[in-house]
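We treat protein structure as text, and this decision shapes the records that our systems exchange. Such a record has a labelled line for the sequence and another for the backbone structure tokens. The record that follows is passed on verbatim for readers who wish to inspect the format:
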Amino acid sequence: MMNYKISFQERARLGMDMLSKKSPVTLEQAKSQARLWKRKADQK
């Protein structure tokens, strides 16, 4: 659920905090994921 009563700065800080906790992704992993999403989108 999204809390709409927080400021833009607070939302940006929370987003950066979440991103910093994720493991790094290689370019090849990102391309593979993009191909998967494209295939799924084409099936709809």
